[in-house]
TrEMBL record:
Domain of life according to the entry: Eukaryota
Record-given protein name: Acyltransferase-like protein, chloroplastic
Span of domain Serine aminopeptidase S33: 173-376
GO terms of biological process kind: triglyceride biosynthetic process
An MF annotation (GO) of this entry: diacylglycerol O-acyltransferase activity
Organism: Nicotiana attenuata (Coyote tobacco)
Similarity comment: Belongs to the diacylglycerol acyltransferase family.
CDD domains: LPLAT_MGAT-like
Keywords carried by this UniProt record: Acyltransferase, Transferase
GO cellular component: membrane
Keyword Acyltransferase among record annotations: yes
């Protein structure tokens, strides 16, 4: 096993300066470098394939002597390993920036004569129990530091290993493929039912595709950030010969040129700046960050000296050719992240090509980002993985068991993105205590799960975002919404493949409606948001505002009673205060072009098996999906009323007596309708129902959350 621990070069500065914590080289796992003997006496054989029996070690900063890591090794404490994450956990986004990338990069590039090797950033971990492996494959720089912004977040839910290719290493592309492939195969043997993630950044994207093509039977998930498979079509081709003839004394200018080609310095400098700060403070922080960034930029010349740059360009050509010739053999699940302002590669077009060429490929397009997308502001890699349902522990994604709750940074971003909507709707949330008293806020809703919130679905689900946001803000509990399965298919993907509200719904725990998912949510004591009216209620016709359209059968009562869930009926009103329905399904059916399009879309959904309630009769069975025509109004206000909690714990009669279950079902339905009737009447007494009145009050009196409402 000693052969697996190769010296990872560290400067004496790390030992002398205790305040400096290198984020990439202080912690090393027992992995082989390219030249090490991978299979030693400590290996075991599984099904005829040798596998390393891993022992995770930590090499502390204090154990650095004479510029090299010593052999003093400590066993990693298992006390820090968690089973799950709580909502609003700290993902560390913004605590490290491009400045850290350049500082750490300048320290690890010192030549040590060693081959390519794996390392784990010290900030990445410890991960949750049974977390999958994530291998980061770097771009042209080869440092392996490209995840510096994402290390802490990814390290909570992945075992993160980063590939470091020393500056003066000249390993050919095919040997790099073999090195990564050997690691993948060993890890697959040790955990055959777990996926292995390959995050390929630019050049690393070619490396990931090559490994996937050579191992079609291994469960791989590829995340490709502006992959260099399009290098043959780079707009910089005419400039490449000039680099070869550029005198050495002028190479110092190359880093400054590359910085503007590889990424957007402004976006890189914005990473750790809170956009909610006053403009003057934002400008000051941005100026400071840009100054620090430019001060370290000259270090890129050391990370990619002239000889290395020319070698990497040759490596890119061979990598692009190698991976493109084997795309047909890739069976892996692939997610491509493409930038719209990539000045180095035609990444947007390449994402479309890969999406059509690969068997299982999805793309996400970021129109305002540059080539070094993982180092720019606004890109949270873990959020993208979660929002596209790519995170899983086994061969298939489980929307309940594989779910990761939103972090604090994700919550802040969502609030920022939808602040205009939250302000316009100015939601008032009322709840009912056990003694029947109505209070403002969610104090009447129990905290101990399982809890089932059952209510009315407003037009197009307009009430969902304020409800989930306020529930998470007040109770620090995430509502898991039961949603139509169409929201989890390619049917709702936009033509531009940009991130959408549907990604955010998945990020915040939306789950496809099914008996098994409902069962698992209640079994895990979740707080579940259920709309029995479903799509029929959310896409209601004209004149059906605030009409409860539920099925005749008590669908959820017996399941709730089985787990002793507390049921909280609620009503919500306000859709007619912000929008007017001008074209409903009946209107659209009379327009031939639109009618044909709706029919084709719903037939396609049926062929994909994503329809619900096909065996039902009556009004609720008519769940035709379409996009209604609405006309915005000067915003009014949303009002929610959560009724008195209904406890099913110990109610065995609900499991055995169908009539008892039906009685409770009808009672809940009437409570929802009564809540809406109450709100429709009381909102007429609200002096701040209009957004204009609320804005005026807020300007002179209080924050938006403190705006009063009617007496209750």
């Amino acid at each position: 096993m000693a052969s697996l621990l190769r010296n990872f070069w560290a400067t004496p500065r790390f030992a002398l300066n205790q305040d400096y914590k290198p984020q990439c080289i202080a912690k090393i796992r027992c992995l082989a470098s390219r030249d090490s003997t991978l299979l030693s006496s400590d290996t075991v054989t599984v099904n005829g394939v040798s596998s390393i029996e891993e022992k995770e070690k930590v090499i502390p900063i204090d154990d650095v002597e004479n510029g090299h890591l010593t052999s003093s090794i400590k066993e990693k404490s298992k006390e820090d390993i968690q089973d799950k994450l709580e909502p609003l956990w700290d993902d560390g986004y913004g605590t490290q920036t491009v400045k850290d990338f350049l500082e750490i990069g300048s320290d690890i590039i010192k030549p040590d004569g060693g081959p390519p090797r794996w390392f784990t950033p010290i900030s990445a971990g410890p991960p949750l129990k049974d977390s999958p492996l994530l291998l980061y494959l770097p771009g042209m720089d080869g440092t392996g530091l490209g995840l510096v912004l994402h290390e802490k977040a990814l390290g909570k839910v992945f075992q993160v290993w980063c590939l470091h290719i020393p500056v003066y290493d000249r390993t050919p592309f095919d040997e790099l493929v073999e090195f990564v492939e050997e690691t993948v195969r060993v890890k697959h043997v040790s955990s055959p039912n777990k996926p292995i993630y390959l995050v390929g950044d630019s050049f690393g994207g070619c490396l990931a595709l090559a490994v996937a093509a050579r191992n079609p039977k291994i469960d791989l998930v590829l995340i490709l950030a502006n992959p260099a498979t399009s290098f043959a079509r780079t707009p910089l081709q005419p400039l490449l010969p000039l680099l070869e003839s550029l005198p050495d004394e002028f190479h110092v200018t190359v880093p400054y040129l590359l910085s503007f080609i590889m990424g957007d310095p402004m976006k890189m400098a914005m990473v750790n700046i809170d956009s909610m700060l006053p403009p003057r403070q934002i400008i000051q922080c941005l100026t400071d960050n840009l100054a620090a960034f430019l001060a370290h930029l000259s270090g890129v010349a050391d990370i990619i000296p002239k000889e290395t740059l020319l070698w990497k360009l040759k490596l890119l050509r061979s990598a692009s050719s190698y991976s493109n010739s084997r795309l047909h053999a890739v069976n892996a699940e692939v997610l491509v992240l493409a930038s719209g302002k990539d000045n180095m590669l035609p990444s947007a077009n390449e994402a479309q090509r890969l999406a059509s060429s690969l068997r299982n490929c999805k793309a996400r397009y970021f129109k305002d980002n540059g080539h070094a997308i993982l180092l720019e502001d606004g890109i949270n890699l873990l959020s993208i993985i979660k929002g596209t349902s790519k995170y899983r522990h086994s061969k298939r994604h489980d929307y309940v068991m594989d779910f990761l709750p939103p972090s604090m940074s994700e919550f802040k971003k969502a609030v920022q993105d939808f602040r205009w909507y939250l302000n316009f709707t100015g939601s008032v949330m009322l709840s009912t205590m056990e003694n029947g008293k109505i209070v403002r806020g969610l104090a009447g809703v129990p905290c101990e799960g399982p809890v089932l919130l059952v209510g009315y679905h407003m037009l197009m689900g307009l009430e969902v975002i304020p409800l989930v946001e306020e529930y998470l803000r007040q109770k620090k509990i995430l509502l898991r919404g039961i949603a139509h399965p169409t929201l989890f298919t390619q049917l709702i993907e936009s033509e531009t493949n940009e991130s959408s509200i549907f990604d955010m719904l998945r990020l915040y725990g939306a789950t496809p409606v099914s008996a098994s998912n409902f069962f698992k949510l209640l079994a895990t004591k979740s707080h579940v948001l259920l709309y029995p009216g479903g799509a029929r209620e959310a896409l209601h016709r004209k004149g059906e505002e605030y009409k409860v359209i539920w099925p005749d059968q008590p669908e959820f009562i017996r399941m709730a009673a089985r787990f002793g869930a507390t049921i909280v009926p609620f009503g919500v009103v306000g859709e007619d205060d912000i929008a007017q329905l001008v074209l409903d399904y009946d209107d659209l059916k009379r327009i031939p072009i639109l009618s044909d399009q709706i029919r084709r879309d719903n037939e396609l959904a049926a062929r994909m098996g994503v329809t619900v309630r096909r065996d039902m009769t009556g009004e609720v069975a008519n769940q035709t999906l379409y996009l209604p025509g609405i006309l915005p109004k000067v915003p009014g206000r949303f009002y929610y009323l959560f009724g008195k909690p209904i406890h099913t714990k110990g109610r065995q009669d609900l499991l055995k007596d169908r009539e008892k279950a039906r009685e409770l079902y009808l009672h809940i339905k009437s409570e929802v309708q009564n809540s809406m009737n109450y709100l429709l009447k009381k909102r007429e007494e609200d002096p701040y129902r209009s957004v204009i009145d609320r804005t005026t009050y807020r300007a002179f009196s209080a924050t938006f959350d403190d705006v009063p409402t009617f007496d209750y």
